[in-house]
Structures are given as C-alpha cells and as structure tokens.
C-alpha cells in the first residue's frame, strides 16, 4: 500500500509540473498578445473573447467530469493574471487619485499652514447627538468596555432588527459600513468568482473584491442616461462565474435614487441567476424622494449595508451594520471573528443611543446645501444630474481632465474629489461634497469657477 501511495504521489507531482509549465506557456502567450494589443491601441480586457473562452471551459469541464464552479474559478485566476501581464507592457499610468488621497494631500497642505476648504470627503460638519457622548461616559462608568458577541450586543442588534423589520439573528454590527461590505464579499465569495458593480461607485466594492481574489466586472452608467443602469446590459455581464451584484443607492457619487421599476429589474436578475445582491444603503436617510430599500423586495439572498457615519455624523466612531438572512450573517460573522473579534462595546452603546435620535434636521441641512451647490454649478454652465439624495453633486467638466482641475484647486486652497476615483470612465467628472457651511461652499465654488473658466 505504501508503494501505491508513493506512486500516486509521484504521478501527482508530475502532473503538477506539467500544469506549471503550461501556465507559464500561457503567460508568455499573454505577454505577446499584450504587445500586439498595445501596438493596435486595444484595451487589455476583451469581454467578448473572455466569454468565448468561458463557454469553452464550461463545455470541457462537463466533458471531463470537472466541477464547473472550480473550473470557472481557475479560469478567472488565469484571466486575471493574463490581464496583469498584458498591462505590464503598457506605459505606466499615474496612480489613481481617490477622494481619500486628495484628502490626505489637503491635510498635508493644512499642516504646512495653508488654509483649505474641504469639499472632497463625506464628513458632516455638524455634531453627533449629545446622547451619544453621554452614552460613552455611561459605558465607562458602568464598565461596559469588554468583549462582546462578534455580531454585536443584543440591545443594538434588536433595535436595528426592529427598525428593519427582521429578526436579531439577521443583523451584524460592524466597524463601519466598509467592513460590512468586506465581510460580505470575503464570507460569501471564493477567489476566482465574479462580482458585478455599477459605476460610478464608491471604490470599496472593487477594492474589497480584489483583496479577496474576486474578479470584478463593471456596468458603466452615463450622465446622458441620468445614471440609470441598463438592465439588458447588466444581464449581458452575468456569466456562470458571477455570484454577486453590488449596488449603492442613494448613490455615491451621483446622488441617484433608482425608480421602483429599475430596482425591481435588478432584484429579478439577481433572483433569476441565484446571485447575492449587496445593497449599500448608507445614505438611505438622505433621500429627498421615495426610496425603497432592497429589503422591501423580499429577496432571500440580499445583504443590506448601512452605517451611523453619515446619518448621525459619527464617521470616526466606525460603526455600521448589515441585514441579511441568518445563514448569510453567520458567514459574515466568521470573517469578522477572524479580523476584529467585535466592535468596541462603548461604541455599540453610542450607536444604540443614536438610534433614538431624529436625524431629520441633518437631512434638511444636506438637502438645502445640495440645492445651493446645484444652483452655483448651473451658473457655471456645468452638466450634472441633480441629486435625489446622499450628500454629493457629480458635475461634468467642460474641458481638461479631473486631475489637473483637482490639482489646480488644491494650490488655491480648495479640495474636491476626482471623478476617476469612482470609475475608470469618469475622468471628465468631479465630486463635490455638501458637508461644509454655505459660506465655505460659496467660496470654494467661486474658486472652482475661476479655475474651470481658464
């Protein structure tokens, strides 16, 4: 028996060696294809060709008895590496500038003594509720600063569950909405599987997916279509390897809210293909027209993400949550248990206190400021879709590119976010936040007007 085992192991080593050799041959072919594409000025990625290869792999997997999901994950790993190899031969592009990168630059300029107007990050300037501060002090006095259940303290989970119309076992408290996004992707998807996101979008969906080894596909929306996704185009992106759709409404950066018909179409697609539907609804309280949560569509594979950061001006508290079926929450909980154990107990009590507060005054402030920004952008003659919600406006620049405008404004003491940070196709756009008082907004927009008129 020992000889049989040794023989099998030797055969496996030989096959592994052959696989490695074939993979290297494939990478060399990818390099050559990349050189040809570069000379012809073609994109590295060709979705039509990828789909043809994908279908061929599915047929071959069926013919040889290989598990189809495994075959597709393996293929996506090869495709990702091929894209990286093909991109190596291109002229190195400048690193992408995100809103956070600009924020850091602005902070460095401030540290050197330069006065800055911050219109680049979604950081509300109004204060968190007083009850939040009192709850922190009470947590200390009551010695409520210990480890908690990974999913969060029962009081907070129950309060969120009641507000969401679900059971407490369908809620997890996370360190901000971002970690809820990450734990959903890392807990539900395997490396090599696919996620589709709708852009322009907060870059975290793509970043979290790439970190987890998940392949990202992008549905691009346009200003001309009012930032409404095309359902047929979305359907065409779904392949055998697609396992999740990620959406964000009210949208960051455009402020778009989808109509009920379009949202129903997205949910139906997810249901028809058995996909997880990750819905980032962090800005749902900042909705200035009818907004229907994905929860109202009663789809069992939906995951709704929210946060206390924007609604209650608690960005630095780092507390958010997700609502999903209990089995999904269990998988997300495993990721959180490995990564952080739990959210700090005093912070959870602060979040519980916030839930008893009425955020409508904050919402009115934001709506008023967005209308003010919109009026000033119209005076500049810029094209944009007036936001239905959230806390941003996303105008198109009349000329030049976003980075040159952003850099020019930084020199003049104004920080705005480059549109390309929210998708590769949006270098003609910038994002302006309404998180500053109107006098600062007016001053910053006046400086912006002088820059883009040049």
Question: In brief, what are we looking at here?
Answer:
The protein contains 15 helices and eleven strands. It has 454 residues and is an alpha/beta fold. The protein folds into three domains: 15-88, Chorismate mutase (Chorismate Mutase Domain, subunit A); 99-126 and 360-452, Aspartate Aminotransferase, domain 1; 130-355, Type I PLP-dependent aspartate aminotransferase-like (Major domain) (Aspartate Aminotransferase, domain 2).
Description:
The chain contains 15 helices and eleven strands. The chain is of the alpha/beta class. The protein folds into three domains: 15-88, Up-down Bundle (Chorismate Mutase Domain, subunit A), CATH 1.20.59; 99-126 and 360-452, Aspartate Aminotransferase, domain 1, CATH 3.90.1150.10; 130-355, Aspartate Aminotransferase, domain 2 (3-Layer(aba) Sandwich). The strands form two sheets. The protein has a seven-stranded mixed sheet, sandwiched between helices. The protein has a four-stranded mixed sheet with strand order 1-10-11-9. Helix 1 (2-40) packs across helix 3 (68-88), helix 7 (176-188) crosses helix 8 and helix 13 runs parallel beside helix 15 (438-452). The chain is globular, with a radius of gyration of 24 Å.
């Amino acid at each position: 028996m020992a000889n049989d085992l040794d023989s099998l192991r030797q055969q496996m080593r030989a096959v592994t060696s052959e696989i490695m050799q074939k993979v290297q041959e494939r990478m060399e072919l990818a390099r050559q294809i990349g050189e040809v594409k570069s000379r012809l000025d073609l994109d590295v990625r060709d979705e039509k060709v990828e789909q043809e290869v994908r279908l061929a792999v599915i047929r071959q997997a069926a013919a040889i008895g290989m598990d189809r999901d495994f075959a597709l994950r393996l293929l996506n790993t090869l495709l990702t590496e091929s894209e990286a190899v093909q991109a190596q031969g291109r002229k190195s592009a400048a690193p992408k500038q995100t809103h956070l990168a600009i924020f850091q630059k602005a902070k460095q300029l401030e540290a050197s003594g330069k006065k800055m107007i911050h219109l680049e990050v979604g950081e509300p300037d109004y204060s968190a509720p007083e009850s939040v501060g009192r709850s922190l002090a009470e947590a200390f006095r009551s010695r409520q600063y210990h480890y908690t259940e990974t999913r969060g303290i029962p009081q907070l989970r129950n309060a969120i569950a009641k507000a969401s119309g679900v059971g407490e076992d369908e809620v997890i408290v996370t360190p901000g909405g971002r970690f809820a996004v990450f734990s959903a992707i890392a807990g539900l998807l395997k490396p090599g599987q696919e996620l589709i996101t709708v852009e322009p979008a907060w870059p975290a969906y793509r970043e979290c997916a790439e970190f987890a080894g998940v392949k990202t596909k992008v549905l691009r929306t346009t200003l001309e279509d009012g930032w409404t996704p095309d359902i047929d185009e979305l359907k065409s992106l779904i392949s055998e390897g697609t396992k999740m759709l990620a959406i964000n409404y009210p949208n960051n950066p455009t402020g778009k809210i989808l109509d009920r018909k379009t949202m129903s179409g997205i949910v139906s697609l997810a249901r028809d293909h058995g996909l997880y539907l990750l819905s980032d609804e962090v800005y749902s309280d900042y909705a200035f027209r009818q907004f229907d949560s994905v929860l109202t569509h009663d789809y069992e594979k939906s995951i709704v993400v929210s946060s206390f950061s924007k609604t209650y001006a608690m960005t630095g508290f780092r507390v958010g949550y997700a609502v999903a079926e209990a089995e999904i929450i269990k998988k997300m909980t495993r990721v959180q248990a490995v990564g952080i154990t739990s959210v700090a107990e005093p912070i959870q009590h602060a979040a519980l206190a916030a839930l008893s507060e009425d955020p409508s005054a904050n919402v009115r402030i934001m709506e008023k400021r967005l209308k003010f920004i919109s009026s000033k952008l119209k005076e500049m003659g810029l094209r944009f879709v007036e936001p239905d919600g959230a806390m941003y406006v996303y105008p198109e620049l009349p000329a030049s590119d976003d980075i040159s405008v952003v850099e020019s404004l930084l020199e003049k003491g104004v920080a705005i976010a480059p549109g390309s940070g929210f998708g590769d196709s949006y270098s003609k756009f910038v994002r302006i936040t309404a998180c500053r008082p109107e006098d600062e907004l007016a001053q910053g927009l006046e400086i912006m007007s002088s820059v883009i008129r040049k």
